[in-house]
Specification:
single chain, 172 residues, alpha/beta, two-stranded antiparallel ribbon, 6 helices, 34% helix, binds S-adenosylmethionine
Length: 172
């Protein structure tokens, strides 16, 4: 699998702090390399980095990055998730397996330029739901579940367990 980056637009630090944190953590858990967030938010950065520091991986978060700049610099395919886009199953078959991907998700209303600039506008069903759900389903289908139990070499490793919690801590 090639590099997957997320571009989260419309982030309002007070109102969206939980949702954007969950967008970041879900994209990390499902195999993205990092996330760009359009509004600067140091608290969000710290919270996400703290999870990475404990649970491993090399996930990157950068805030205060305008979507137009991120897209301009990005050498790969830009996919905007929207309930109005083409069907997920049809879109997946058109995505080259060797392309780096930038996946754009919104918060409230997304500017029309995003629809125009994206290489693909993709729906995860045509019902309105959430950026966390849309991103998670899209990434899981794209990676065929491959990221879910990947070793991240973190300080803490969770051992799957039918009951209870088993967590191994690597001492420094
Ligand atoms: N009404 C808003 C609009 O016109 O863009 C949608 C807001 S929705 C709460 C926030 C984000 O979730 C959207 O920008 C989109 O990225 C994602 N989303 C919601 N439902 C979706 C769906 N069915 N398929 C793909 N993405 C979806």
């Amino acid at each position: 699998m090639t590099g997957i980056w997320i571009m989260r637009i419309g982030h309002r630090p007070q109102r969206d702090k939980r949702v954007t944190t969950h967008v970041a953590l879900s994209s990390r858990a499902l195999g993205a390399k990092g996330i760009f967030v359009d509004t600067e938010d140091r608290v969000l950065e710290e919270n996400v980095r703290s999870v990475c520091e404990r649970f491993g991986g090399d996930f990157d978060i950068r805030t205060g990055i305008k979507w137009k700049d991120a897209v301009k610099k990005f050498d790969g395919m830009v996919i905007h998730l929207t309930m109005y886009g083409q069907r997920l199953d049809e879109a997946l078959s058109k995505i080259p397996s060797d392309a780096d991907l930038m996946i754009v998700v919104g918060a409230e209303k997304v500017p029309p330029e995003v629809y125009e600039r994206a290489d693909m506008n993709v729906s995860v069903g045509n019902q309105p739901h959430s950026e966390i759900a849309a991103l998670s389903i899209f990434m899981d289908r794209l990676t065929k579940g491959g990221a879910l139990y990947e070793e991240r070499n973190g300080r803490f490793t969770v051992i799957p367990n039918e009951r209870g919690k088993t967590v191994v801590e690597i001492s420094k």
